[in-house]
Hints:
Strand order of the largest sheet: 1-2-3-4-5-6-7-13
Shape: globular
Strand content: 15-25%
Amino acid sequence: xxxxxxxxxxxxxxxxxxxxxxxxxxxxxxxxxxxxxxxxxxxxxxxxxxxxxxxxxxxxxxxxxxxxxxxxxxxxxxxxxxxxxxxxxxxxxxxxxxxxxxxxxxxxxxxxxxxxxxxxxxxxxxxxxxxxxxxxxxxxxxxxxxxxxxxxxxxxxxxxxxxxxxxxxxxxxxxxxxxxxxxxxxxxxxxxxxxxxxxxxxxxxxxxxxxxxxxxxxxxxxxxxxxxxxxxxxxxxxxxxxxxxxxxxxxxxxxxxxxxxxxxxxxxxxxxxxxxxxxxxxxxxxxxxxxxxxxxxxxxxxxxxxxxxxxxx
Length: 313
């Protein structure tokens, strides 16, 4: 399918960020209770930055609880845009899929045009056999992201995902500093996805726009650690997707200086130490449709507020 040309009225920032943040408020370090998470999601959808919001991330075994707590907040008018959910898997694949089917049946109202719908599934695999088992069980119409370990055989795993016509997922951090992968590992993942035509999403450790040292949890006296920014990852994906070098992709992943990033209506530019790269609207559109489509974050306000503070919104 050809890539959609971005409308002439879309700014580069709009193309890059639209629907980019999947809200994972139920997960650490936020770890909110379901009522709080669904209220937040409803609020974010209706706010001025709602266009940046993607799916609500929910564990498969919590779908019934979601239905109970979100029901008063879901859209009910015919023609309304439904809440879209991405479900995280458990070790029991069959049970997960049964929960998804039951959820979609419960919410099939208003001619399938409102309420809520699970249209995405995220599950871990550690081997090619895992990938093939997941692929055989999941229906084609359910977008399935298979998370692969970056210390495994990335090439073989991504090749298997490509054969299965599924999508890949990469974990970029966590609640301890040792969970943040090395830049070279991230580049290997992105290169494998490019080589095999696999669309990807990311999760964890991407609350902030750019690389830096940040708190790892929301505790009163939290540990800190080096984290990637979501812009680092997006630009590295765009660069490699357009045939760029690994060395420059590492530089993009490590970039911590907002002064080197320029947003204009027509492009995003990175003024690196020895070169300037321009990411056009068309390239950003291709990256968002075929490369890196979203990232999961337990905070929506941090990526939005910090991007606004940098003048990107």
